[in-house]
Automatic annotation (TrEMBL):
PANTHER family: BLR1237 PROTEIN (PTHR42928:SF5), TRICARBOXYLATE-BINDING PROTEIN (PTHR42928). Residues 1-24 form the signal peptide. It holds the Pfam family TctC. It comes from the Bacteria. Keywords: Signal. Belongs to the UPF0065 (bug) family. SUPFAM superfamilies: Periplasmic binding protein-like II. The keyword Signal applies. This is Tripartite tricarboxylate transporter substrate binding protein BugD. The lineage of its organism: Bacteria, Pseudomonadati, Pseudomonadota, Hydrogenophilia, Hydrogenophilia incertae sedis.
Length: 326
């Protein structure tokens, strides 16, 4: 009886393995959906659309981008965590994947347990920008102005847990001044209101601000990296401008639901590497103030390790700041 049961189990395992292998060999045989957990028009959406087009060519199958915004990116991330593990629903998320565990007491998924990792994509600098007619002329004046008008100044962000929220939290902590925050469902809508003068300033990725800065449509006070950004050579770092050691970069990673077959993940990771070497992607990233990660970081192992380090880094910072959602 025991031998018969063991034989049946072995047969079942082998059958499942053969089915998974056949699936992987045929993959992809239909359109793939890349979920972006933020509104259309934002910086992560921009990265996703460039990546999806290049990966579509590498996989010889269309990848469409679907925006599932809300709750600081957790709605879209949760949707992918619950999706069928077949490689046809994948997630492009940013640093918010590492801050969510500290921000949400009842997070409906575990970033470290509910995904297969495909690879890192890019690390994007951020910029501190304001509406075109905001009174302060430079960073020094900005600090003095917001401290003197802290009850009137409005800071826009893309919602709890977003990169703009994190950057704003660190900025307010660094200058010791809490400000009125205006949350949006993405930095795309927030940027629209900044351009329209409905909010005063925000911290946003260069992928969303570089063209607006160059066109003179918004005012910029600094970048959040240790060194200046080649796409914006005249813009000082916030460290240079007077905020010592202030640094925030926004990394993006690509994920699949837990249980996605390894051969499928490997195909997606290989396509990611091809996309990151695409001349158009490199040029568009450069125009937006960023660049692809090195190919040895566009791997499942590198993303897994990076995510773990980032969770360990930001968890204590957010806990100390007392920022969380129910």
């Amino acid at each position: 009886m025991r031998r018969s049961t063991a034989t049946r189990l072995l047969t079942l395992v082998l059958a499942l393995g053969a089915t998974a292998l056949a699936h992987a060999q045929d993959y992809p045989s239909k359109v793939i959906t890349m979920v972006v957990p933020f509104a259309a028009g934002g910086p992560t959406d921009t990265v996703a659309r460039l990546l999806a087009q290049a990966m579509s060519g590498a996989l010889k199958q269309q990848i469409i981008v679907e925006n599932v915004g809300g709750a600081g990116g957790t709605l879209g991330a949760g949707r992918v965590a619950r999706a069928a593990p077949d490689g046809y629903t994948i997630l492009l998320h940013h640093i918010g994947q590492s801050t969510a565990p500290a921000l949400y007491r009842k997070l409906p998924y575990d970033p470290l347990k509910d995904y297969e990792y495909i690879g890192l994509v890019t690390e994007v600098p951020m910029t501190l920008v304001a509406r075109k007619d905001f009174p302060p002329k430079d960073f020094k004046e900005l600090i003095a102005y917001v401290k003197a008008n802290k009850d009137k100044v409005t800071y826009a962000n893309a919602g709890l847990g977003s990169a703009s929220h994190l950057c704003g939290t660190l900025f307010m902590s660094a200058i010791g001044t809490p400000l009125t925050t205006v949350p949006y469902k993405g930095t795309g809508p927030a940027m629209n209101d900044l351009l329209g003068g409905q909010v005063d300033f925000m911290c946003d990725q260069t992928t969303n601000t570089t063209s607006q800065i160059r066109a003179g449509k918004i005012k910029v006070y600094g970048v959040t990296t240790k060194t200046r950004v080649p796409a914006l050579p005249d813009v000082p770092t916030l460290h240079e401008a007077g905020l010592p050691n202030f640094e925030v970069t926004v990394w993006h990673g690509l994920y699949a639901p837990k249980g996605t077959p390894k051969p499928v993940v490997d195909k997606l990771s290989a396509a990611l590497k091809v996309a990151l070497q695409d001349a158009t992607v490199k040029q568009r990233f450069a125009d937006l103030g960023t660049e692809p990660v090195a190919l040895d970081r566009a791997t499942p192992e590198a993303l897994r390790e990076h995510l773990k380090r980032e969770i360990d880094k930001w968890g204590p910072i957010l806990k100390q700041a007392g920022v969380y959602a129910d």
